[in-house]
Amino acid sequence: MEVIKQYIPYLIPIILIELALLIAALVDLVRRAHTRWLPKWGWALVILFVNFIGPIIYFVAGRSEE
């Protein structure tokens, strides 16, 4: 248990960054009319289930230029 306690200060910022990326990507997805390569529900699955990198993939590849 003490081993876990020593890593908590390092894990909290990573978890907060992941949560912020997830929320930002989902908000952006909802506001967009069109996406590239996948339908909106497909991008929602990528954002939710591909931890940490899913929102980054969406921002790089999924956003349409409109």
What does this structure look like?
By secondary structure, the protein is mainly alpha-helical. Helices cover 76% and strands 0% of the residues. It has 3 helices and no strands. The chain has helices at 2-31, 40-49, 53-62. Helix 1 (2-31) runs parallel beside helix 3. The longest helix is centred in the first third of the chain and has 30 residues, at 2-31. It is elongated and about 50 Å long. The mean pLDDT is 90.
Quick recap:
The chain is mainly α.
The assigned structural class equals: mainly alpha
Task: Give the overall shape.
Answer: elongated
Ends distance: 50 Å
Q: What is Rg? A: 15 Å
**Which series of helices and strands comes N to C?**
HHH
Features:
mainly alpha, 76% helix, elongated
Please specify the SSE layout and strand pairing:
Elements: H1 2-31, H2 40-49, H3 53-62
